[in-house]
Amino acid sequence: MLKQALLGVLCAAVVLSIGILIGHFGISKSSTSEPSWVKDVAKDVDEKELTKIPHMATSPGDEQTVQFMLKRWKDPDSGLDDAWRQEYAVYLSFPDPDRPNKVTVVDPSDAELFSVREKEKPYTDDQSHPDVVQPYAAYAPAGHPRGKLVYAHQGKASDYEQLNKTVDLRGTIAITRYGGAGRAAKAINGAPYGVIGVLVYTDPLDINDGLMSDTNETYPHSWYLPPSGVERGSYSIPFGDMLTPYLAAKDDTYRIPRENVTEIPPIPVQPIGFEDAYTLIRELGGDAAPNDWQGGFNCTYNYGGPGFKAESVFNNSDVQLDIYNHETVINSSNVMGIIKGSVEPDRYVIYGNHRDSWVHGAIDPSSGTSVMLEITRVLGSMVKQGKWRPRRSIIFGSWGAEEFGLIGSAEYTEEYFTKLSERTVSYINVDIATFANATLRASGVPSVQNVIFQASQQVSAPGHDSLSVYDNWIKYSNRTSPTHGLIPRMGYLTGAGSDYAAFIHYLGIASMDLSYTYDRTKTNARIYPAYHTAYDTFDYASKYIDPGFVSHQAVARTAGNILIRLADSLLLPLSCNDYAESLEDYLKEAVSLYEAQLQAKAISMDPLKWAVANFRREATKLDELIRSSDLANETPLKVRRINDQLMLLDRAFLNPYAFPEQYGFRHVIWASSSAGKPTFPGLADAFARAQSSGEPRDWEKVHYHLSVLSQAIDGAASMLAEVI
């Protein structure tokens, strides 16, 4: 039986607990060797324990993982100070096990000419487990639409607009491929044009580099998605429980009427495998779709007549969806654990990973769960032995029902909104720990950049004892910083892709997301190919994602190192000057894109320029104050004051009225954007709308977002200034 040598998580705890300053200034290259404590882990974690049966949210398998987490975190020798389950009554969507969803091609006499596969083809015994849920689109409604088939590319609003110029979409079924637009959007965008049902598939060009055969090309022979593989997922846009927005979903919580739920598909949807999609698309009639709509199939992708070619065996036939999904309110559990701080127990560093999966979930999320369990085992053992206790409290969250829309973490932030807002230093998210085994990938707010860099310099890259994770990372993805020179390229948390969403967007907590990933010069796969399918198993993970689980080790060591630095440093290792650099980059892009047209509308960008310049001045002053202070010998209140300035910086960017139509998005710098521009999201979206419509009220909205930004950035600058 393969074991996961999940190991060596950090724990310079003993060294760092003396409360020295670490990693606040610059990107030092002076301490890049791997500390001896990193190798002080001998226990293997068997990932099979987490993936031996499917554990979709609220299922019996999910309950087994709840008990497994509680057992580990309550272990008398290596557990945490306390651990408990926390339940929420949440709104989830499931298929009917007694009436499987069906997709068929039927002729005018109602004879069935073709039927889409209802379950994926099994290659190993675990893929045949009775608890493997049929592929379905969570939150898509039940229904039985029947109509002519059309090909709508990625289901973007622009795709349907273009298609509607050629084809009458009223009463049609649209087949779309993953990518370009969110899952729910593929149906939401089509419904106004009269589309009555949607099929979604993963095109082999987008996930398999064009490969299609399970005889010798795809899994079980490689990491590529086999022909019957289907990506499941939540077809909802908001995160959190949809019936209780801004309220924790307790039994007695007020719930909005279900018919008032928005931003879910208004029409039935079903995901299918690319082998079945190929059968349908190659028979479509009508004009050829544009070149950028073509995919990996050995055929021309036509729009559809609507419907199939005259010479097709499916001529004059319809596609019928028979969807039996149902929704219910059901209890879902978070598992929480804590190590209490010794000096500042009222300051929290939160580390989270979701626990639920769509099927076995060896990579998503069990790679992250196993990393978290190893970190807690190492830290828990040190606490139980009396060798160490962090300066600040560490909270661990094993979130439930993430796959249905980040529900467990969102409900937690709603329930403890005030306490978390006032006391939380940072949130570390490790969801999928290993997409593959080439390089670290990190995203976060700019203030956490330096602590990630410092930690990654102290961990050896997998298979490279003389090369750090940092130095390996910079080979794969880098940028030139005006301050630091050549450094690894970090991403920003601009959407709601995992459980960091509620912490950064809703609470304004400095957050980050860490994983190991693949070399993007060697594949066009938009994500690891078995994502959300029945093939995301231990066999797949151990053979094709991370043989030997060495990248799991690197992520555990890096994430744990970051955790200790945040929990144990006298001064928080958060950089406001790195934040200033990112604001300046965003400003430069905004001026380039928008200033000329805004000046023509008598809208000035000067207040935004002044605000960013003011932020840079105050960030520089605060760093100079820190440099000139002997903080180890200062009064605790002075250190606490500076730490609070650093901790609360992102809170200053929150505006609850900036994005009234987007649940949970209050951070004016990192909110989700549809404009696709590397600049301030509210400004970018408002400008795109105004440019498209030309309406005076839309240009007024651009001015409004400029004011929101300017005042938020000025407010953040004042947070960094000396206390009045």
Automatic annotation (TrEMBL):
Q: Name one GO molecular function term.
A: carboxypeptidase activity
Instruction: Please provide, in alphabetical order, the Gene Ontology terms of the cellular component aspect for this entry.
Output: apical plasma membrane
Q: Any idea which UniProt keywords this protein has?
A: Aminopeptidase, Calcium, Cell membrane, Disulfide bond, Glycoprotein, Hydrolase, Membrane, Metal-binding, Metalloprotease, Protease, Signal-anchor, Transmembrane, Transmembrane helix, Zinc
GO BP annotations, alphabetical order = proteolysis
Domain PA per the UniProt entry, residue ranges: 147-233
Q: Where in the cell is it found?
A: Apical cell membrane
User: Where does the Transferrin receptor-like dimerisation domain lie?
Assistant: 603-720
Task: State what this protein does.
Answer: Aminopeptidase with broad substrate specificity. Has lower activity with substrates that have Asp or Glu in the P2' position, or Pro in the P3' position. Lacks activity with substrates that have both Pro in the P3' position and Asp or Glu in the P2' position. Lacks carboxypeptidase activity. Lacks dipeptidyl-peptidase IV type activity.
Indicate what this protein is called per its UniProt record: Aminopeptidase NAALADL1
In which organism is this protein found?
Answer: Oryzias melastigma
